[in-house]
Amino acid sequence: MVSPITAAAAAPERELNRFVRIMALMERAGNGLGTLVFTWATVVILGGFSTMLTTRKFRYATFLALLEAIRRNDRRQLGWKEGFD
């Protein structure tokens, strides 16, 4: 049987655990979205689809690919494990 004092002491820890799980989920979702954007932009730029884009859209695709490549390179230089990318 759990005493009321023990249950009350565990409540802040539950809230913290929930917050950490939500933040981890958001981080993974952001990494997944970044990977999709990087793949899409690379295919558009290198795959020959750039002739079908307007200049403005081509610049957006180039910027997104460059931004994601810089982000990935920075993480590797900081010593993060590749499993978290």
Automatic annotation (TrEMBL):
Transmembrane segments: 33-53
Keyword Membrane: yes
Highest taxon, organism lineage: Eukaryota
Keywords: Membrane, Transmembrane, Transmembrane helix
PANTHER family: ARM REPEAT SUPERFAMILY PROTEIN (PTHR33115), OS07G0653900 PROTEIN (PTHR33115:SF57)
Name listed for the protein in its UniProt record: Uncharacterized protein
Species name: Leersia perrieri
